[in-house]
Design goal:
CATH architecture: Up-down Bundle
Bound molecules: fe (ii) ion
CATH superfamily: Ferritin, core subunit, four-helix bundle
Distance between the termini: 27 Å
Strand content: under 5%
Helix content: 55-70%
Order of helices and strands: HHHHHHHHHHEEHH
Radius of gyration: 19 Å
Length: about 300
């Protein structure tokens, strides 16, 4: 049994609400504030969902750091890149603090999990290679963050999480705008800059689409998340909003994204054949953020 599972099992014993009762309560728009008000199922879904976000926050800091700072093209870029990395650590800390208020052992979560036990989005398992990849990171992944976390800030039934996301959403907005600024600079820059950005887009756009989840076949976890009102929007809705913003941002640039607006269907369409079976297999077999775990533990 992993660190998370062991702690979860212990805390489930303190959850005294009935599952149907919790679903009715959150359905009326009420929030859940304490462990006692949860059912074991609610706690389980909440913790897995919170870890997905907050493990992603801290691993994104590790993944962004070298590209955002050591490979920044100038001092201003380095300063704003460092600010992003610091923000991400702050976002992670908010989540782990709330988990520790529920009774989780934060030290164990931080320092005793094996790489495969981290729930971060797999796109952040490795370092980003250059500054254009960092620009795509904030312009694509943090943009997805503004949409997904914005949904939590508006709709999440777990009160403590919903409240602190206001600060996080504001900062993710800054990260997204930083991405947009670099998209414009590189995308309308020299031929070499355009080529570097195009290569980063080609590599990272499909990962962003995977990050946003399957638009039609939502997994069991997302169904439970929506049933407990931890978020409201579907994968399809989040993906449409993301595509709208990205297609509009890239329209005036010399760099192409594989997506367009379909006038007849009145929706944004991805011009890629997504190999979802391949994506799931890759996620399942991934070793996790091996190097980043060493950074977090202070070994690297
Ligand atoms: Fe963040
Ligand atoms: Fe961010």
């Amino acid at each position: 049994m992993g660190v998370v599972e062991r702690q979860l099992e212990e805390l489930k014993e303190e959850c005294s609400a009935d599952d149907e009762e919790v679903i009715r309560k959150v359905g009326r728009g009420e929030t859940i504030e304490t462990l006692e008000e949860m059912s074991p199922g609610y706690l389980h879904t909440l913790v897995e969902f919170m870890l997905t976000q907050h493990d992603t926050e801290i691993m994104s800091a590790c993944a962004y750091h070298p590209a955002a700072t050591q490979k920044a093209p100038n001092l201003n870029a380095k300063i704003s890149g460092s600010a992003v990395v610091q923000d991400e650590i702050g976002h992670a800390n908010l989540g782990y603090r709330v988990l520790s208020d529920l009774g989780f052992d934060k030290e164990e979560l931080m320092y005793e999990r094996e790489p495969r036990e981290w729930r971060n989005m797999r796109a952040f398992d490795y370092e980003f290679e250059n500054f254009a990849e960092f620009a795509c990171g904030v312009g694509f992944y943090d943009r997805a963050g503004t949409i997904q976390i914005g949904d939590i800030e508006q709709n999440c039934s777990f009160g403590p999480w919903r409240r602190y996301e206001r600060k996080v959403v504001a900062e993710e907005g800054f990260h997204k705008r930083l991405g947009d600024m670099w998209f414009k600079r590189l995308g309308n820059g020299t031929e070499a800059q355009q080529e570097t950005l195009q290569a980063a887009v080609d590599k990272m756009f499909p990962k962003a689409i995977a990050f946003l989840g399957h638009p039609e076949k939502e997994g069991k976890a997302i169904k439970r998340i929506r049933e407990y009102n931890l978020r409201k929007g579907s994968n399809y809705e989040h993906r449409q909003e993301w595509l709208r913003q990205v297609v509009e941002t890239f329209e005036p640039l010399e760099v192409e994204v594989p997506a367009h607006y379909d006038e007849d269907e009145e929706e944004y369409v991805v011009d890629l054949e997504m190999d979802w079976a391949g994506v799931y297999a890759e996620w399942k077999e991934a070793p996790g953020p091996v190097d980043h775990v060493e950074t977090v533990r202070g070994i690297a």
